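Reopening this ticket.

The earlier resolution said the output was attached, but the attachment link was broken on my side. Pasting everything inline this time so it's all in one place.
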Amino acid sequence: MLDCRIIPYFTAGTRIIWPGREIAASSSDSWFTCTIKRTAGKHTATAFLVQAQKEEENPNPRQLFPGIAEQSHLSDVTAQRVSGQKGGHRKRLFAYSGSSKQVERVARRPEVVLEEIPKGNASPSLRNTETGDEGAYSCLVSVAPLTGEQTIQLQIEETPTVTINVNPLSLLEGEQHKLVCNIGHYYPHDNQAEWLREPKDSWKVPDVMKNVLSSSHWQSSNGTYSSSRYFLLTASLKDNGHKYTCWVGHPRLQSPIRRSVTVEVKVDLYQLLLPSPYPARDGSVAGVGQHGQEATSTAWLLLLLSLAVCLAGTLCYHHKVRSAAKEGVVFVFHFLPETHSVLSILLFANSLLFHPPAQTLLEMGPPVPAG
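Inline output:
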């Protein structure tokens, strides 16, 4: 929608010299300012309107006013930068005098095409904008005694970059890892960031992670900002195959940026087979490995299967020992250090149960090569 406002402009009876109008025009002409503004945008235009007491029938200005095209453009143009502080301190950037056609350039920027000013175009251009260029700029145009001014608010925006500190991620059950979402090179600093836990089934709604910490915004030498969002992940079997996504929104973005990492969680069989001599936090002694009383059903199932395999192997070796007892054969069993806690107990119990006449030795460590 457009908002159009026409307001009377009082000239206090002063005769207005304006290109395209008769110099000897009556001073009783009525002047107005017409301001058109987009209500949903940031575009504003202001024009001067005049209502003459007597309308001329000849619409051709060259025939009505001889030599009007050669009249001098008498408008003065001034571009200023307005401070955002209270009081609105103004810093002049450049000024143009229509009567002398001289330019007073105070600042190196912005750029203005001087040849376009007499044609009515005094638009300044800012190239290679930086965050320090953000602020209010005003353009003041005057044809005495008419004066018009427009102020433009220049906003600088930089698109953020988003990265995750690891991808992919493989953990053992119970292991901890810090997931960090790094957000950099954005401006202004009013961004939004969240960590989401996305299930394997895409139709399910992601869960917003809690206990997520944020760093402060730190500003680089070019004026842009950087920050991070992070949390500590404790691996669980229910996390296997799930994605953790860093979601970032910013005024510069039409849609949020998403960066994801898929987590793979494995069971630590090494710790399942080792007895843990350390008590749990509640004072009870852990039954198997470091998981103790908190071991999952899957871990227990793997342990029982391992024991069944060991028992079957022990019975097989028992029959071989009995068959070779008369020959006095010495059987040497080699076990890795990681499994001696369970297997050695089973072999000793089996030997005592059946009382084999052959001598049985248990050696810890890798098997000795034959020869």
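Reporter confirms the inline version is readable. The first strand starts at residue 2 and ends at 9. The CA atoms of residues 17 and 23 lie 6 Å apart.
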